[in-house]
Amino acid sequence: MNHAVIDREEIPMFFIPNVKQTIFAEKSLQKEYALYIHIPFCRKKCHFCSIPVMIFKDEAAMDSYLDNLIDEIKMNMNNLKGCVLKAVHIGGGTPSLLSVPQIKRLLDVIIGQFSGDTPEIVFEANPESLTQDKIDILAGYQNVTLNIGIQTFNSDRLREINRMEDVNHIKRCLRYALGKKNLDVGIDLIVGLPNSTLLDVKNDLEAVNELGLKNVFIYPYRLEKKSFFFDYHQGANYLSQDELIKTMEYVEDKMYKERFVAKSMYYWTRENKPLYLYSAHQIDGGEWIGVGAGAYSYLNFSVSHNSSIIEENCNSVTGCNKMRYRLVRQNITSQLIWDLSFMIKKNDFDTERIKEKYGKIAEQYLHEILEKLEENGYSQQKNNRIRLSAKGKVLLDKVESLIQEVVLR
Cis peptide before 116, with omega less than 30 degrees from 0? Predict the structure, then answer.
């Protein structure tokens, strides 16, 4: 494996942590962490997506990528022996483009790193490339959660976002996966896609109940830079900001009525056991290792980005498999902004964790942030707990900017 190239950037500390925070930090370094594995390949790029990807060409290219990816996994996990791995997430891109032997090879390597019980492994999939054989191999392992990017059950909307539009195939795929007793299953939906209406949303939620789904991530549509829609969105009909907020309010009301529980900003479940532990670990302020093309890591109060593998001018995977990390070490101020930005993603704000980690210095920021969130309608109170409102979820970028402005002022 080629040596990593490190680009370091130091930021001066704005204030000094108190003793309680230092003790908390020492404890956290004992270490519970999560592992993210990135598969950067897609058969084609969705029109709403802004993530850099490589177009999948053949299994040989994927094998080459896996060789380097597995080396990187082993190196990172060897460096963190003695730590506790809480969760694994295999994302992309499109991990379901892996063949059955490639899926087995990757999962065997991951599981082979553990002497005890294997933590939950979430595997992301696109129904277009998810076959029954692939579902069978995933169901053959313990603690695997299959998360399928459905986005919508409307064939017209699927075609417009450059995805497979065969809704019957998608439902057959879901029913087959849901029939596996040893496999947990969840889906992604997007509210407010171009040209969508409230009727689309109602039909999507009806499909959730028809299929008996227990785990659903529901995201409000955002026009992302570097996406196809960002450059070519003329002619499409979009919900206005107010219409999207009202639609999200409708969705949340329906999910509560259907006895779903909100576990995080976008995750709804009727499951009795905890799932999606990687996401929960992040939201709770945990650290993680990201391996593979374009993956991010957060360890030792530093954020690193493996940026070189998927440069657009790479002609082959082999030619791009040099690890090149850009490392940004956080000072206490940037740590606080980071933690607050994850705190709001939990269904109920975890202000106690922030107070425990940062002590009295954080209380003035928390008070002002909570006050401003309420003033702008970005938050709401329920059962004496504070959470983002539908407006706050739709306007998440403004919520995050508000946090930065308060802390940096």
Answer: no
Residue with tokens 């302020």: 285
d(CA 296, CA 305): 5
Compute CA distances 367 → 176, 344, 406, whole Å: 49, 14, 10
What residues are paired with 305 via a beta bridge? 296, 326
Q: Does residue 28 surpass a pLDDT of 50?
A: no
Res. 174: pLDDT tops 50: yes
Q: Which residue has the higher pLDDT, 297 or 152?
A: 152
| Dist CA 329 CA 332 (whole Å) | 10
What distance lies between CA 56 and its chain's CA centroid? Answer: 22
> What ranges in 319-359 are assigned the alpha helix state H?
332-343, 351-358
DSSP of 81-135? TTSEEEEEEEEES-GGGS-HHHHHHHHHHHHTT-SSPPPEEEEEE-TTT--HHHH
Residue 15 scores a pLDDT above 70: no
**pLDDT > 60? residue 369:** yes
Q: What is the mean pLDDT of the chain?
A: 86
Nearest-10 crossing angle of helices 132-139, 167-178 = 20
Contact by Cβ (8 Å): 294, 38? yes
More confident of the two residues 31 and 152: 152
Report pLDDT digits (tens) over 103-130.
Answer: 999 999 999 887 667 899 999 999 999 9
Is the pLDDT confidence value at 338 over 70? yes
CA–CA–CA angle 185, 89, 150 (5° rounding): 40
End-to-end CA distance of the chain: 44
Helices (H), 284-331: none
Q: For helices 19-28 and 351-358, what crossing angle results, to 10°?
A: 110
- The structural domains of the chain, ordered by start, are 5-282 (3.80.30.20), 340-409 (no CATH)
Beta bridge partners of 35: 88, 289
The pLDDT tens digits for 63-98 are 989 999 999 898 888 877 778 889 999 999 999 999
Helix (H) or strand (E) segment spanning residue 10: strand 5-10
Q: Do β-strands 54-55 and 84-92 pair in parallel, antiparallel, or remain unpaired?
A: unpaired
Phi, psi of 240 (to 5 degrees): -70, 165
DSSP class per residue in 11-42: ---SS---HHHHHHHHHHTTTEEEEEEEE-EE
